[in-house]
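hey
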């Protein structure tokens, strides 16, 4: 996935960027174009490859494959210290033995800029970051927010074409973090420098960015404006990661009509009859009298959050989250209405709701009628309603709810969870093992990015002969 930007606007372009560490692929053919003077944020969970992209651009890491071009020129041939790029880290890496002025002036002095010019540029930059009068203050006497401003001033004083910011607000308290978000946005406007920002904080990305790049497991999931990312998520992962969402398994009955919680909702997406994911933001659910709702539900919990009530509502064994200025009491039956334009339809990653595995029969039926069937380097004893011959190819299908997470000593397979999304009544997980991706539906809450073990009951696997596939 790549954002399409006209050539004259592009400052930096990543093409098919790949990077691995210890045989684990961190970046998987990443393509990204960044405009001059744009504020771009790389957003995603820990381990998705955000910081690796920054380090490759800065020259601290060399990609295994792919290109990085800066104004059309190959950046990989330029040493890190000669690239027109500066970086601000979460740990500010200030020099404790130098005062504020000397920290900011350090890069200019390395370049042998005349001292008169240094004084002018440093004072101008300290005024820009609201530290005028702090020139002689020791670093140890500054607060965390002031130290962060010094680090930004030191990076900006050299007037780089591109400023990389790797979670620079992560060490600040909540109030200061919010204040600095606005200051960074103002600094971006004043300086005219391109910002590439890394965070896992969704609100931070929505507040500051011109463009957000949502990442997962070394791949780009969606590129767009904050409004596009929030209002039109590309898939369930993006919808779940960007703010709170109601995400349900549903079925398109016909164009612009989707079956959800036993009722037909009108939407604006023309889709064929198929299984889909439906995303509805909590603030888009209207509370109405039961007889006027598309569906009805029972209020399980209600909390006042200052500007709205947050309610948990049970409907047809699905759990809805509603944000509303109207209150409802626990135990009330309410009607729920959603406007067609607020129902977002997305394709499922596993359209058939099951895992499909090509396998081969390695031994004919034993006395118990069980066949030895092999795939992915494993052999399982499985029953079959049909007579099978050795070396015959078969197709195995196992539903997501029949894949069980378990302890390593009880497992058959293991892999890493790419995504974990709550689907109203269960967690839907996408797991990558050595040979394939798996769909898992579970009541267990696991973290995306964690390694887990799993198994499935032999009697839950359907075996279909090769010619019937």
């Amino acid at each position: 996935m790549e954002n399409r930007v006209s050539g004259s606007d592009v400052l930096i372009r990543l093409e098919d960027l790949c990077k691995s560490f210890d045989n684990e692929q961190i970046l998987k053919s990443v393509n990204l174009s960044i405009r001059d003077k744009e504020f771009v944020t790389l957003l995603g969970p820990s381990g998705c490859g955000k910081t690796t992209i920054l380090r490759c651009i800065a020259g601290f890491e060399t990609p295994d494959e792919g290109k990085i071009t800066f104004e059309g020129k190959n950046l990989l041939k330029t040493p890190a210290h000669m690239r027109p790029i500066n970086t601000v880290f979460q740990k500010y890496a200030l020099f404790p033995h130098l005062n504020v002025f000397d920290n900011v002036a350090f890069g200019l002095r390395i370049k042998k800029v005349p001292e008169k010019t240094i004084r002018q540029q440093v004072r101008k930059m300290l005024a820009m970051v609201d530290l005028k009068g702090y020139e002689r203050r020791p670093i140890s006497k500054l607060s965390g927010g002031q130290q962060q401003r010094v680090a930004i001033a030191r990076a900006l004083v050299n007037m780089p074409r591109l400023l990389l910011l790797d979670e620079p607000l992560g060490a600040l308290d909540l109030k200061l973090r919010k204040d600095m978000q606005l200051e960074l946005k103002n600094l971006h406007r004043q300086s005219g420098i391109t910002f590439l920002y890394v965070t896992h904080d969704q609100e931070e990305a929505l507040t500051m960015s011109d463009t957000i790049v949502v990442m997962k497991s070394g791949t780009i999931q969606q590129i767009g404006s904050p409004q596009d990312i929030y209002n039109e998520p590309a898939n369930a992962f993006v919808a779940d990661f960007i703010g709170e969402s109601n995400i349900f398994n549903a079925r398109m009955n016909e164009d612009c009509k989707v079956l959800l919680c036993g009722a037909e909702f009108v939407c604006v997406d023309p889709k064929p009859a198929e299984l889909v994911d439906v995303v509805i933001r909590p603030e888009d659910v209207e509370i109405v009298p039961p007889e006027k709702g598309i569906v009805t539900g029972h209020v399980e919990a209600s909390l006042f959050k200052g500007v709205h009530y947050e309610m948990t509502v049970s409907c047809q064994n699905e759990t809805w989250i509603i944000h509303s200025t109207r209150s409802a009491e626990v135990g009330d039956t309410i009607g729920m209405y959603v406007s067609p334009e607020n129902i977002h339809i997305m394709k499922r990653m596993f359209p058939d709701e099951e895992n499909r595995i090509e396998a081969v029969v390695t031994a004919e039926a034993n006395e118990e009628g069980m066949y030895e069937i092999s795939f992915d380097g494993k052999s399982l004893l499985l029953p079959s309603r049909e007579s099978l011959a050795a070396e015959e190819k078969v197709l195995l299908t196992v539903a997501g709810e029949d894949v069980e997470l378990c302890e390593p000593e009880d497992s058959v397979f293991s892999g890493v969870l790419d995504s974990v999304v709550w689907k109203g009544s269960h967690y839907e997980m996408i797991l990558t093992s050595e040979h394939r991706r798996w769909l898992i539906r579970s009541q267990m809450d696991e973290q995306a990015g964690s390694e887990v073990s799993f198994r499935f009951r032999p009697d839950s696997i359907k075996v279909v002969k090769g010619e019937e596939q």
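The longest strand covers residues 10-21. The chain has eight helices and 30 strands.
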